[in-house]
Structures are given as C-alpha cells and as structure tokens.
Amino acid sequence: MQEKHILICAGTGCISSGSMQVYEALKKELQKQRLESKVRIILSGCHGFCEKGPIFIVYPEDIFYCGVSAEDVPALVTEHLLQGKIVERLLYKDAQTGEGITSHAEIPFYSKQKRLALRNCGVIDPENIDEYIMRGVYQGLERVLRMEPQEIINEVKGSGLRGRGGAGFPTGMKWEFAYHNRQDKKYVVCNADEGDPGAFMDRSVLEGDPHAVLEGIMIAGRAIGSDEAYIYVRAEYPLAIRRLRTAIAQAEAYRVAGENILGSEFNFKINIKEGAGAFVCGEETALLASIEGARGMPRPRPPFPAFKGLWEKPTCINNVETLANVPLIIRKGSAWYTTIGTEGSKGTKIFALTGKVNNTGLCEVPMGITLREIIFDIGGGLQGGKKFKAVQIGGPSGGCIPESLLDLPVDYDSLHSAGAMMGSGGMVVMDEGTCMVDLARYFLAFTQSESCGKCTPCREGTKRMLEILERITQGKGKAEDIPRLERLALAVKDGSLCGLGQTAPNPVLTTLRYFRDEYEAHILEHRCPAGQCSALLTYYIDAELCTGCRACTRVCPAEAITGEKKEPHVIDEEKCISCGNCVERCKFDAIKTK
Amino acid sequence: MTNSIGEIDNADVMFVIGANPTAAHPVIGYRLKMAAKNGATLIVADPRQIELVDYADVFLRLRPGTNEALLNGMIHVILAEGLADEKFIRERTEGFPEMAAVVKKYTPAYAAEITGVPAADIRRAARLFAGAENASIFYTLGITNHTTGTDGVLSVANLALVTGHVGKPSSGVNPLRGQNNVQGACDMGALPNVFTGYQGVGERGARFKFGRAWGTRLNPRPGLTITEVFDAIYTKEIKFLYIMGENPALTEANLHHVRGALEKVDFLVVQDIFFTETAAYADVVLPAAAFAEKEGTFTNTERRVQMVRKAINPPGEAKPDWVILSALARELRLKWNYATPAEIFQEIARLNPAYAGISYQRLEKEGGLQWPCPDAKHPGTPYLHQDKFVRGKGLFTPVEYQPPAEEPDSDYSLLLTTGRILFHYNTMTRYSGAIEPFKPEEVAQVNPADAGHLGVVEGETVKLSSRRGHIAVRITITDAVPPGVIYVTFHYRESAVNLLTGSALDPVTKTPEFKICAVKMEKLATAGA
Amino acid sequence: MITLTINGHRVEVEAGSTILEAAEKLGIFIPTLCHDPRFTPAGACRMCLVEVERARALMAACSVPVMEGMAVHTDTERVHAARKENLRLLLANHPLDCLTCEKNGDCRLQEYCYRYGIAESDYQGARKEYALDESNPFLIRDLNKCVLCGLCVRVCHEINGAGAIDFTNRGFYTKVAPAFDDALEASSCVFCGMCVDVCPVGALTPKQGLRRGRPWELQKVRTTCPFCGTGCGLELSVKDDRVVGVKGDPASPVSRGQTCVKGRFGLDFLHSPDRLQKPLMRKNGEMVEASWEEALSLIASKMRGLRGREMAGFSSARATNEENYLFQKLFRMLGSNNIDHCARL
Predict the structure, then answer these.
(1) Are residues B129 and B211 in the same domain?
(2) Are residues B84 and B215 in the same domain?
(3) Is B403 inside any structural domain?
(4) Are C33 and C109 in contact (CB under 8 A)?
(5) Going by beta carbons, is chain B in contact with chain A, meaning 3 or more pairs sit under 8 Å apart?
(6) Does residue B256 belong to the interface with chain C, where contact is any CB pair within 8 Å?
(7) Can you give the CATH number for the domain in which B69 is found?
(8) Which residue from A157, A264, B364, C293 puts its CA 20 to 30 A from A332's CA?
(9) Share of chain B above pLDDT 70, in %
(10) Which ranges of A307-424 would DSSP assign to H, the alpha helix?
(11) What is residue B275's DSSP assignment?
(12) C315: distance to nearest CA of chain A, Å?
C-alpha cells in the first residue's frame, strides 16, 4: 500500500461535531489493521466547511470526505485505504445533481474561494512547526531581517493591505506612523478579541495557522522598531490559546522568535493576554486599557495608539487576519498581492457565512466578488428554497443589505456606501420570514448590553433606541417614533466615543433605509409583514378547517376562544394575547394569523 | 523643606524615612503616591507597614530607634561602592573624612544586625538613592521624636551631602512640618534662643537691632524649652505660665509630670478656642478666635507664607490672639497700637531678612511666597542651598548609633510607638461633627504574634502600662506593626498615650522620645483596671 | 506654535494643545461635563463635540489636539443637534428635582439645559433607580443624578491615588461604585472629598451645609487650611456668619485644589457648641465667667509682680505668624526668653 496522509479537521466546529472521536477511532483501527507505519494522521486547522464536519481528507489522492463519524472509520480504512475504493456515501453531494464530488477544489463552496490568509488552515498540523517551515513560513521574516524598516513599510503600503478588523485603515500607513514615532520602547499588539457573535475567522486562523500570525507580528515589529508584542485573545478560545503557546515555544526553540532571531540582532518577545470577553475590548483603545490591567473602556483618539498606545508607548495594533496576510505579501511581493481584489480593496476577506443559507461556514473570497456569488454559489442559496430578503454584513453593528443590492461588489467602499461595513466579516443571510424591525431590535439589544457605559450617546442612546424598537415590535409604536429613532441613531453614530457606538446604529439606519415600509406597517397598521412579531399577529380560526374539538380552548390562557363543541370556534381579538398556544395545539392547522 | 512640594512631581527617587505622609500630610502623600505610580522610585523606611509601602520599590522595615544605623549603613555602601558624588563633596562640603571614618564600621551586615533590615535591602536602597539623577529625603517625627533626634537629622544630611542630592530641584532634605504654622512659629522666634528670623538672643547685633525696634533692653540669656519649663515649675523658678493655643496636658510626653507642673505653677493663663485638658488647670482662660475668624499668615512646610482670611466673626466675646495680646500689652503699659495684622506683618518684614520682600499686597496678588524673599522684587525661593549652604560649606557630622533611652525588658516587653491617623489632627478634629463620630476612639495596632501570646482578640480593650502610667485602649490585630511593637495615636484624651511615654530628651533640641518606650499589655479583666 | 481657525477666527496655540484650549484662548464657549485639565481627558460626555472640516465624525474638543490649518466650527446646526441630543439623553435619566437639589444654581447639566433650551426629554423608558447612600458622615451619594462623567473616578485614581471607586457594570447599568459595591467606608476611600468638588451635578453632596444655603447666596473666602504643615488652599463658603462649605482652592500653588478629610470635612469644629465664648477666671476654685477687663487686668497684675525669668510662655504652631511674633515680642519686652512652642512635637 502506498503511504497515506490523512487530515482530520481539529477546528472547533469539527471538534464539536465529533472529529476527535473520529481521530481516536482511526488510531485504533489502524493499529488493528497494523497500518500505523503506513498512514500518518494530521490534525489540521479549520477547513471552513463546518456545516459538513467532521472533515476527513486522504492524501495523496485528495479525497474529501465530510460528515464522518467514528462508526464510519472501519469502512474508510478497509474500503479506501486497503481496497482503494472511494466511500461514496461520505462524499460531498452536489446540491443540484446529487452526485458525489471527490476533490474539495470542485466543491462549489471552495471553488470560488481564494484562500490566502487561510492558506495553511486545514492543510497542515498547526502544532508542528516543521510543517510550516516546509510550507515556506518564516521566509518572510528571514527576508525582512535583510530589509530596512522603510522598505518593509513600503512593501506593505504598496500591497494596499487594509485592516481586516473592521475599519479598513491602510496597514502600511499605520506602521509608518508607529515607525516614525521614535521612542525607546514600542509595542505590536495583535487584536484577536473576536467578539462578533458567529464570527470565527480569527479563531480559525489562530487555531489552524498560528505561525503565520506570529510571523506577521514579528514582521510588523521589525518594521516599526519594536521588540515586544501582545496577542490579546479571548479566554473563550482555549484551543487557539494553546496552539499559540505551543507555536511561540516552538518558534523560540527554532530561533525564529525570542533572542537573536535567525542569528540576527533582532530580538522579539511575544506575550499572550487573555481577554475576559467584553465585546468592547475589540476596540483598540479599550483593548490596550485591558492589557494594562484597567477596565476595558475606550480612550479618546487622537492620540492614536501609533503615537501613544500601550503604556503610552507607540503601538501598532493589527487584527489577526491582517497579520496573517503580511508574510505572504513579503514573500510574494506587493505587486502580486495587488493583482487580487479591487482598486481600493486589495486581497481577500474571510467571511463567516451563516443564517438561512445552505452552506454555512468560513469562506475567504477575493475582494470585489459580489454578494450574490457568496450567498448563492459558495453558500449554496437559501435553505428550503426560500426567498432571499437581506444580508447583514459586518457583525452586530453592520448593516442590512437588501435584494436589490445583491450584485454589489464586496469591498470596503461599496459596503460603506450601502450603509453596511466590512466589519470583521460576519455575514448573516435572512429569508422572507425575518422581520427587519425585530432584527434591528435584536442587534441593538446586543450592542446596548455590550456598551461600556463611558460615553453618553452610546450608553443612553442605544438604550433609548432599543426601547423604541421594543415598543414598535410590541405594537406600541407611534408615528413620531420613526423620525425620533432616525434622529437618535444619527446622533449616536455621529457623537459616540468609539467604534462600538459609532456603528451600533447601522442595523437601524439600514433597515430604516431599505425596509422603512416594515416599520410603518408595524406602527401604522399594527402588522408585522414577516409574521414574526408575536404581539402584532392577529389569530383567527379558519372555519373550514376547524372541527370544534375544543383542544384550543383548553390551552388558551386568556379564554379568548369560544364556540360550541363540533362547531367552528372563534377567537376574540380583544382578549387574545397572541401567545400562539392554540396554533401549536391545533391538529388541523385551522388557526391562522393575519 | 529645602525643596517645594510641587517638585515631588519630577522626583526620580524619593526616600521616606520616619514619616507617614498619607496620614499626617495627606496632600503630600497623594503627590508621593502618584509620583511612584508614574515611575519614580520610592524607598520607605519605617517600622510599620504604612500605606506608602504599597507603592514602594524598597521597604526597609527597621527596628524603632535605629535610624542612624540604617543611614550609616547606606552611606557605607555608597562609599564602599564608589557611588558618592566626589565633586560635590570636594567643592561644597567639609568634615567628610571624620564622617567617613565613623561610617566605616557600619557594613551592611552590621547595620542589618542593629536595624533588622536585610543587608541586601540596605545595599539596594543605597544604590538606588545614590544612582538617581535627583533624589529627595522626606522625614518627620519618626526621625526627630527620639533622644537621638538630632543625630537622625544629621545622618539624613550626611546621606544627602555624600550623594550631592541637595541644592537642586527635586533633590534635598525635606522635613515635613507637622502643624500648619510650626514653620512660621519658628520663623517668628517663638523659641527660647532666637528672635524673629533665627537671630540669636545671645548675639549683640541682634539684640541691638530688636532692642532698637522695640524700644527696650533685651535679655541675652537663652530661655527654657517647654520640657525645661515644666521642670523649672517644680523648682519654683517659673511662677507664671501663659499658654496660647497649645494643649500640653494631652500632647506632651510623660503627662503625669506635665500635669503635676500645671497644677503647681502659681499662675496659669490658657488662651484657646476650646476648654482643653490644659485649660482645666488654668487660673484664667481667654477665649480665642479660630483661623477662619481672623486675618494673618501661615508659613507652610515648604517655607511658603500664605494668607489666612477672615470668613466669619468669632463666637461670643472670643477675640483673635493678636487682639488679645495687644490689649494685654496695653494693660502692661507697653505702647502697642496695631490696627491690623498687616501692620504687624510689616514690622516682621522689617526685622526678618528672609521675609523682607513679602507684604500682604504681594500675597494677595501673587499668592504665597517662599522665603527667603529678601526684597520686593524677589520671586521667592523654591529650593534652598542652590549654590552654597547658609553656613558656606555643607558640614558632615559623624554620627554613631545609640540605642533608645528605654528599651523593652522582661517587665515591659513591648515597644510602644506613637503617631497620628489620617482622620484626626492632634485634638482639634475631636470637635468635628463629621469626623469625631467616624473615628470616635483609639484603636491601637498590635501584631498577631503579640495578640496570640496574650490571648487577646480583635476589638478587645486592653490595659497598657509603662513605668509612668497606664491606659485602657481598644486594639486591632494587624501585620502593619512588627512583632513586639504596639502603635497608639495621641489624639484621644480618653486613652492619653502620653501618660505612658517617657521624658528622656534629645540633648540638643530637648525633644522628648515620643516614639519609643517600653510597655506591657494585659487583659483588662486580669489587670482588674 | 500651531495656527488654526475656530468659527473663522484665527488663533495660535502651542503644539499639543487641545481644540478646547484654543477655543478658551479665543473666548469661545464649548460646554463640558467630563473635562478637567488636571486629569487624563476622557472624551466621555460628548458635550464638547465640534465640527472639524474634512473630519468624518464630530470631534471631542477636550481631547483632540490642534493641527496646523485646522478649521473648527463650534456653532453649527450639526454641533447644536449633537449637544441637544446628549442633553435630552442625560435628562431622560436624571431626576428633575432641581427645587430641592443642593446643586441648583451650580449644576452644569442645569446650565447647559438652560443654554440649549432643553426643558424635558422626549424619551420615556427605564431610569436609574438606586437607593440614596447616606451611610457615611461626610457625603451623600445619589447615583440617580450621576451623569457618569468619571471626574470622581479620575480624581480618586489620578490625584488621590486611593482608587476607591471605579465604573462597574456595563451599558445603561454602568455606575460608579467601590469594589464589590461595598459602602465607601468599607473601601479604600479616605474621604478627601475631592470627588465632591469635581462632581458637575448633584450626585455627590457634602453633608456639611446641607440645606444651609444656595450656591448664589454663599460668600466665598479663600484661606489656608489650619491643620497640618502642608498649607493647602481652601475656599470657604459662608452664609449667615457660618462656614457652610469647604472646597479645595484650585489656584493654590501648594495644593492645586486638593484636600484631605480634615480640611474638607473637619472645619465644623468652628461652630462647635463647646467653643469658648467668654473669658473664665478661677474664683474660689471654680471657673466662672468674667469680663475681658477683669481677666486682662488680673493677668497684667500677676505679670507686673514678676521678673522676666520667672515667667514662661508657650506660643502656638496653630496661631498666625503675626500672633507668634507678638507673643515672643511681649515676653521678650518683659525680659523673658522662656518662650517656646511645640515645634518638637
């Protein structure tokens, strides 16, 4: 038998769907079949296709199995490894034809992607530095050791790389500011405080390719003249933290970090700081305060961290995904990098695709791809063939983009002009059953509770916006609530201290912009067009379907249903509290809403 | 202080010895804490774990009464390691060889043996202090309230001179004066040996100057200090005592002796704002106005003369001290005719060269002025000894360590040390409606080991006695005091700690040894008190 | 030096100055609730928002440093709208009990609402509902009135160093409290009272002088603290011949407005009923009230009968320079150098 490599995904998604059990079962089975010496198992980072996990790839033939469980292992070993037969039932099935696809490159989820930041994720063992070095990692570091800081900065500036954490500030410029601010001590900070619900791109990079991030950090350090970095990671990412610690220890042992890196005069120390899970700590000044041991509250900018950052020293803060791109730019050159993406947005962006699409997971796409391609090609369209309504981009403070803008190219400026933002790359797809007012309320409830409470507009304003939205979804909205909400949203956006408050109104502003009619329906007609706001639903009984079984009358807490036995019943709209108990109870689908 | 309070902000190294500024000089305490927080090095030497220790880089927990051994040990390290400022010593000081000879035997090991401070810490403190760009020493009564108080002050000066840390901004010797106008009272000559402006009563020129100004002949013999006055009452040499605004019946050491003297003196006048413990012994009590009821000036610890302004009228028939003194002078047929404190100040400025350039007009316009301020154009002096010392060259004085007058023994096995707490100021705050209910009684600090030994518990009231008297006092059990040491403040008449303290004096300044005496602690029940 | 324009007026200020400082130089009004030049800028209240040409968002004048050629506008509709919205938001969560509030007339929230014509807020909804904290003898904490400017937190951390209070909770439920929401007296608070002095609204009120006078009725007298040797500057508030309030004097070169518990809260000894009000003389072993004439003539007669060296006088480190001077002058003129005071204690 030819020697095989088997990659089992050990990303958090696959671990939770059972990949470690698959791993154990495989080890056992190989022992049983005496194949240990012939097969090497590699626990890889995330492949992104979490929807279909656990993922199990056999090399060299590159066969992509998904949804593998421990029970499938004996069959895989016997049939595939020993007999050379592909196990059809574990292949990915084409959504249209239903046929099995063997190579992941042919799966639509992957075929439109361009994996740069995720280049090693799912390909190598994140806990083994040798695999990185084989893949060319640390060549970028080696190269910058021979470059002048300004050359490094020029390279990054030339690549057009912009911050992937949300705001999209040009990375090279940020470095240049920190570089020109000559002081004895400077810091690099890697922002790995990924706080958007549902976002896990940074986590996947850290878990799947920690050395790429370390290399990016050290290149930044070399460029700005720093010798120490902090990686601020959420404590909720234990696997990422473990792999980072392992990676730092290995890098130090290999002299690609620590003292006299690669025999040069360059020293660099990397610390890990675990964050306690406050959303606002993703904001750079709050993050710095948190590293300093203070309460994670934003500080006014300017002065920007590049001038006065951690412990008042010049500090360059970059996000994980940004830093993961850096070694590649250094290695392959900025000219190569600029071939990918659009005029104003170079390179790729990772999105966490979620919501009502078929293929949820992590995808990295070239800038400029349209929303339609992401949602319908990579995402495989909407679940249950429902109609697309909107996509929320950029996390809880992103904006909702309607169907009419599906062909919008995904880049910083287009998204901004549509009222959304790149953000960290959350992408929530909604179908026609989603109430946009309720959606805005939902996101506001999140940002409101995560407001640090420091500045007036965010602390008080998001609360009042939430209260107005709650009133509207409860059918207690007033006509003047819409202009009031708009006025307030603009004030919070314009007046807040940090990015959290400045963007928190986005879901409200975009839904007001694209789905104003839904607000009006709630307020003026006391109607929720999506049929989602329970307080606004009017229940009635379809006399045709009602058998008069009386089941509904027994569960109605408001005694709103009356009717003779075996006669069609009626609901008293005045008494009805729209709890929905009767709907669940009715065996004949006779209770309807309008 | 040789320097200004504001200079703390720029200090590199601050050495606080025998001072508890966060309690006794809170605003200076804030500055020291913030300077330490902002990166300045803080060295604290104290038997107790005072609040500043939390901010300190080095904590030298020395046995009470061993300041001179510690300072000599530090100077030894500085000389042995070549850290002294030789240029400064050469150009601006004298007496160095004699001092160096004495310090020779104070190796860190020897100093450690006396002080109980690890030798390594003594070395570290010495290196930090000597190596600083600028360094200030702050001390208060923890240095001076000993029979060796003068030696302590001289040792502090030796340390500053040997490192050249004096005569520059943020570098110098800074006694923090305890009371609002103790600096001013000294400047004014409320001392037995000097007229206003430290002009000796024994100096012919000074006597001539003041005699002419006051139109009288003046006594050339220095008078008696407070403690000597009490002794002289017992010997009938003093028959009349006039006490203005002091309360020795509570705040002096060895109270039995003091109270006996107050009892004995032929005629006692007490002039105060309250009917104090001392007033109870008086023949006449005169009601005085408080600070907010009169005009005048105070001089603070950094030599800054500042205005005190009248806000309200005195209660009843109470009068400002200056009004009372003027009236008495007239009664004594002296030709005093002061209409305002400003007139008195003009007379002071004429007689005290350091105050010559200060006037009420300037104080109103410019705020406080720091003396020396020799003429009306002079901006005042933020720090002293810039180019030369008052006496010319800075003088080193050899200082040997000497043990305290009274040390714990088998009968009185604990060492009592005294001081203040943040919330009270001597006895005045006991009349505050806000503060008094908050801190109504003494809480003595006892180390857990000593408490365990005697079987006393937190909050228990114990009997403390010395060879001179006894008090009952509630205790708290804390590591803030080292084993064998008990700490009591002097604010409370109900547990007047000076009934315990001794009357041993510093031979030069006649300051009593408030900071050390031997006591024993007993359970109240067994003591039967 | 940096040149910029504010509302079209050119002004030159030092590099590193803030827009607010430049505006102050021009005498242009910018409202602030959370600003104090002694502390790290917070940029929290957002009252000082101004429009800067070519900047996307409004900028906080208190913290944004000036730049060459900057063009600032403080009076545009957008700026006014933002300030008004802030006031509406603050007012929606603030009791309107100005009639009985100690801060009435000296409250910055009140002042700005007046200036911008915000009488009430059109936001209904949740309000803070915290119990009044009156547990310590020095100050009352009414967190319902707190606008979370953070000045108290900063004075506690950056000036006092006690760090007794900080922000706790998040979002709308943020409040300032000691660790674990303990009472102040159980925290590291040393009751310096500086938080009270910086509070722009009625959230922190000293108990001294409660209901004893409105801010505009008080006469202010600047003086020097009578406690320790530091010599802090104090500003006394006086009404009806009573000291009803004390604050640190920010103009004092010594204390720059700082105080400790004694100077800030301990001056009520002035009005103690135990103050001596009449001379007393011992007659037949009893202390009885006497007239000044009687008392002084008795003292003088005793002194006249003695030689200088038989008399002694203890002067006072508590009294003024002038009084100490007179005291030693008096004794020395009578031939006695037996003058001392407690310099050694």
Answers:
(1) no
(2) no
(3) no
(4) yes
(5) no
(6) no
(7) 3.40.228.10
(8) A264
(9) 99
(10) 320-332, 334-338, 371-372, 412-417
(11) -
(12) 51
**Contact yes or no for A460 and C92 at CB 8 A:** yes
pLDDT at A125: 86
Contact A371/A193 with Cβ under 8 angstroms?
no
Residue A126: cis peptide before it, omega within 30 degrees of 0: no
- Which of C258, C271, C330 is nearest residue B30 as measured by Cβ atoms? C258
Q: Is it true that domain A348-431 has CATH number 3.40.630.10? A: no
* B418, B361: one domain: no
**Domain total in chain B:** 3
Q: Are residues B159 and B197 in the same domain?
A: no
Least Cα separation, residue A153 to chain C (angstroms) = 25
pLDDT 10s digits, C154-207: 999 999 989 999 999 999 999 999 998 999 999 999 999 999 999 999 999 999
Same domain, B356 and B207: yes
User: Would you identify the CATH topology of the domain A537-593?
Assistant: Alpha-Beta Plaits (3.30.70)
- Here the ipTM equals 0.91
What local confidence, expressed as pLDDT, does residue B497 receive? 83
Residue where one domain finishes, among candidates B355, B370, B385: B370
Per-residue pLDDT reduced to its tens digit, B417-468 = 888 877 777 667 778 888 888 888 889 999 999 999 889 999 999 999 888 8
Q: Does B47 touch chain C (CB under 8 A)?
A: no
Residue B390 inside a domain? The answer is: no
Domain co-membership, B362 together with B300 = yes
CB contact under 8 A, C172 and A460: yes
Give the mutation candidate from C17, C18, C170, C174 for the A interface (greatest A CB count, under 10 A): C170
pLDDT 10s digits, B109-167: 999 999 999 999 999 999 999 999 999 999 888 788 777 778 888 888 899 999 999 88
Phi, psi of B240 (to 5 degrees): -135, 130
For CATH 3.30.70.20, list the domain ranges present in chain A. 537-593
CA distance A551 to A538: 19
Residue A122 to residue A107: CA distance in whole angstroms: 15
Where along chain A do the CATH 3.40.50.11540 domains lie? 129-338
So what's the pLDDT on residue B528?
Answer: 46
Interface of B with C in 184-243 (CB under 8 A): 184-193, 195-196, 201, 210, 214, 216, 218-219, 221-226, 229, 232, 237-243
Containing domain of residue B483, as a range? Answer: 414-527
Determine whether the interchain pair B238/C345 forms a contact, defined as Cβ–Cβ distance below 8 Å. Answer: no
Cβ contacts from A onto C, under 8 A? 115
Instruction: Quote the pLDDT of residue B326.
Output: 95
Q: How far apart are the CA of A297 and the nearest CA of chain C, in angstroms? A: 10
Give the total residue count for chain B.
Answer: 529
- With an 8 Å Cβ cutoff, the interface of chain A facing chain C consists of 278, 295, 297, 299-300, 302-303, 448-457, 459-464, 467, 484, 487-488, 491, 493-497, 502
Number of neighbours of residue A571 by Cβ within 10 angstroms: 22
Please say whether the structural domain A129-338 has been given the CATH code 3.40.50.720.
Answer: no
Structure tokens of A554? 């027994």
Nearest residue on chain C to A444, alpha-carbon basis: C171
Phi-psi region at A541: left, alpha or beta (left = phi > 0; alpha = psi -120 to 50): beta
Taking the CA of residue A48 and the nearest CA in chain C, the distance in Å comes to: 34
DSSP state of A542: -
pLDDT in tens, A9-40: 988 889 999 999 999 999 999 999 888 888 88
Write the pLDDT tens digit of every residue in A108-144: 888 888 989 888 888 888 888 888 888 777 889 999 9
Distance from CA of A318 to the nearest CA of C (A): 22
Instruction: Burial-class residue A96 by CB neighbours within 10 Å (0-12, 13-18, 19+).
Output: exposed
Instruction: For residue A112, count CB atoms less than 10 angstroms from its CB and return exposed for 0-12, middle for 13-18, buried for 19 or more.
Output: middle
Q: Is residue B300 less than 8 Å (CB to CB) from chain C?
A: yes
User: B72 pLDDT band (50/70/90 cuts)?
Assistant: very high
CATH 1.20.1440.230 fits A436-524, yes or no: yes
Residues of C in contact with A496 (CB under 8 A): 46
How many whole angstroms from its chain centre is CA B511? 10
